[in-house]
Amino acid sequence: MNTLPNAVSSIRSTLADARTRRQQWLHGAARSVSLDDVLSGTCLGGRINELAGRSVVVDTQDQLAAALALIELDGTARRLIVCPPGVAAEHRRLVVDKAEADALVSDRPDGDVEWQLPRSIACNSAVTSSSAPPAARCHTEWVLLTSGTTGAPKMVAHTFDTLTAPMRNRPEPPHSVVWGTFYDIRRYGGLQILLRAVLGDASFVMSGVHEPTAGYLLRLGRRLATHISGTPSHWRRALMCAEARDIAPRYVRLSGEIADQAILNALRACYPHARVSHAFASTEAGLGFEVDDGLEGFPASFVGNTRDVQISVEGGSLRIRSTRTAVQLVGDDSRLGDDEGFVDTGDVVERRGDRYYFLGRRSGIINVGGLKVYPEEVESAINRHPAVRMSMVRPARSSMVGSLVAADVVLEQTPDANAAAADFKREILQICADRLAPHKVPATIRFVPALEFAAAGKLARHA
Amino acid sequence: MSVKPAVIDEIRRLAAENRTPTPDLTDDLVLLDSGLDSLAIAILVVRLEEIFGFDPFAEPNDMAYPVTLGDFIRFYEHAAERRLVDTKHAG
Fold this sequence. Notes:
The structure holds 2 protein chains of 2 kinds. By secondary structure, chain A is an alpha/beta fold. Chain A has 12 helices and 28 strands. In chain A, β1 and β2 form a beta hairpin. Chain A starts with 10 loop residues before the first helix and ends in a 16-residue tail after the last strand. Chain B has one domain: Orthogonal Bundle (Non-ribosomal Peptide Synthetase Peptidyl Carrier Protein, Chain A). The two termini of chain B are 21 Å apart.
């Protein structure tokens, strides 16, 4: 990817500078659009100039509509506030005030009422021809919403440069690439894939907002998707569908949660010809690194200076400084990085031998009589049992030691008898006892039919 | 479910999981000498709560904290009886 020095870079200007492209398509759940049509047309009814220099909330039902609007507005709007599905009504005013939003782009008939912004322009996933597409005029700030600790969304600002930094200096793939992701494109993990596809000569198959995993897998298979990304929870859910056998990816990517050895092995077994890679990324820190050796954790050699990303571990916390980190938190005085520009990711790692392993989120700690337990570390042990599909570890109130570790476990198949369930429990506890300190071994195990997912495709952990 | 066999069962199960030998589970066995440490006893209490639906250690209680296995079983029996009385009153 080449950008001219001193030029304002945007998706459109970058693509305009690019050499001839392959036929690229954006496939939504209901409709497909060719990228050439997107670049020469408009999804805003030709009204883009009304949004020049504005701070624009993009809130759509349809992912494809959002993708088209974002591509069209990048370089013209001053700020794009990228709303994932389901921004709560009580948080909208906060988002508008903090981001000084003054316009809305939406495909929702009631969007005007919901956001109450002075200007509102309808968008949709159909492209119409347009007279003259605007030239890039400004460095657009991209604002992504992540869940904050208080429930109100945290607004993380990126630029075209920070978002696309992970894609620089990459050789062009030799074969045509078709991307897919279980992420919504309005979250960092999904937006990365949209940009990677659009700027990287690839087509992209988007999921539908309420599309069942099985249906999305079928579409990925039909479009011959080669590169597919999602969280470990997305992938565990996908592997539970018979349709997981209908896709044949060359590249399987995990990010957003800790990828444990069990899910890496399961994906390798299901897709023996695919490169299975897990990436560490967060909305604030950006893409940190990718691990390609098929093992959980990451090599200790990653810590220190590398060309693009500096990684350090302090007090057990993984910290990252790179050109990919967000530029600011919008409407929030707290800083993203420390004095040296390192962003504390809040992820706790532990070195064993020549490798670091993720223990979990600093904020998710379970306190067992004063001893810390990271749920993810326990889940990783539980998930080693071949009958376990996925698990979620949570605190159980204990009158004796404050909290104990409790596990909700989804099995591959419902055990045929109570005796089998009891055997599984015993075996899972054995695996945990062999690998974990006694206070980390689950006090109770409950078999459940399914686990709840939060909107970002991660396990819904309740404090 | 009657209290005593359930408590004995769970202690045996825990001891097996922890690979500690199960001592003779007599009434005068001092709990903390039973091979179960404080963590294991905390786990025992949580598991018994799953079985009985209550945790006597979490309730206001006029009984002394149990020291022996016999105390422990009576602690649970007492709480179970009290709940029965409460239920009758409520009914």
